[in-house]
């Protein structure tokens, strides 16, 4: 457990923006995974899988771009067919939504309930496509906590996803200097938060262990939300 001493206590923020996979929940199904393969085949005519492409801390568009680059598909073709890709993946996950089996990360429900009780603005900043991200949150029972989200449909880089989410939070709060926290689970979340100038709390509830995350010197690093709540 660690929390930087040069930051205000983490509960004093005005808004909190959460990553989804590995932070709020972990998917125990293959629905999203298979949607990638279906879309890559149907939209680009390529029989390939996302295996071997870094996915944790990546974005859905970034993952597909990497697969297509590996298969020799030109960036121009990818960019031309992004709308079809987004539609196909969303339709696939919607069609198989009953099979979604998200598992909440430890104490995440308690954390969101606490933040909500204190009147904090809650949003999502995720590399998921929007339709897919909301379906996961609906399946997990967490959707009612979140007022808005920023996803990868129009912002392939995590930094841009964060930037849009931060701007929307400040717009909703009506304060340009509102204190916004990002909560994630990967080194990519830490880098994106630094590039957008907001404090970041990371949880070792995804694939990255506490020691590795802590080495990137986030503003707060915890094994899970149980420890984060204890630090409040």
Description:
- With 232 residues, the chain is of the alpha/beta class.
- The chain folds into 2 domains: 2-28 and 102-230, HAD superfamily/HAD-like (Rossmann fold); 31-99.
- Helix content is 45%, strand content 14%.
- The chain has 10 helices and 9 strands.
- The chain has helices at residues 31-44, 60-70, 75-80, 82-95, 108-117, 130-140, 158-173, 187-196, 210-215, 225-230, and strands spanning 2-3, 15-18, 25-27, 102-104, 121-125, 148-150, 180-184, 200-203, 220-222.
- The protein has a 7-stranded mixed sheet with strand order 1-9-8-7-2-5-6. The chain has a two-stranded antiparallel sheet with strand order 3-4.
- The longest helix is centred in the last third of the chain and has 16 residues, at 158-173.
- The radius of gyration is 17 Å and the shape is globular.
- It starts with a strand and ends with a helix.
- Residues 4-8 have low confidence and may be disordered.
Q: How many helices does DSSP assign? A: 10
Strand content: 5-15%
Query: What's the shape?
Result: globular
CATH architecture of the largest domain: 3-Layer(aba) Sandwich
Bin the helical content: 40-55%
**Nearest-integer average pLDDT:** 95
**Got a strand count?**
9
Encode the helix/strand succession as letters: EEEHHHHEHEHEHEHEHEH
How many separate domains make up the residues?
Answer: 2
Give start-end ranges of low-pLDDT stretches. 4-8
Helix/sheet category: alpha/beta
CATH class of the largest domain: Alpha Beta
């Amino acid at each position: 457990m660690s929390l930087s001493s040069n930051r205000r206590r983490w509960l004093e923020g005005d808004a909190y923006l959460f990553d989804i996979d590995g932070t709020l929940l972990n998917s125990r199904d293959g629905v999203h995974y298979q949607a990638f393969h279906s879309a890559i085949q149907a939209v680009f005519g390529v029989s390939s899988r996302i295996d071997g492409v870094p996915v944790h801390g990546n974005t859905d568009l970034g993952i597909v771009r990497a697969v297509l680059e590996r298969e020799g598909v030109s960036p121009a073709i990818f960019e031309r067919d992004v709308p079809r890709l987004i539609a196909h993946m969303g339709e696939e996950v919607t069609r198989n939504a009953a099979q979604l089996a998200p598992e909440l990360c430890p104490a995440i429900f308690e954390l969101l309930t606490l933040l909500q009780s204190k009147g904090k603005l809650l949003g999502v900043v995720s590399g998921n496509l929007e339709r897919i991200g909301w379906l996961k949150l609906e399946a997990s029972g967490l959707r009612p906590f979140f007022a808005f989200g920023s996803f990868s449909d129009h912002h392939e880089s995590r930094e841009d996803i964060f930037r849009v989410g931060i701007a929307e939070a400040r717009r909703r709060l009506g304060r340009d200097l509102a204190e916004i926290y990002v909560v994630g689970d990967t080194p990519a979340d830490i880098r994106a938060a630094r590039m957008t100038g907001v404090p970041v709390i990371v949880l070792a509830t995804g694939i990255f262990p506490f020691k590795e995350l802590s080495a990137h010197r986030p503003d707060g690093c915890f094994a899970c939300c149980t420890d984060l709540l204890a630090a409040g």
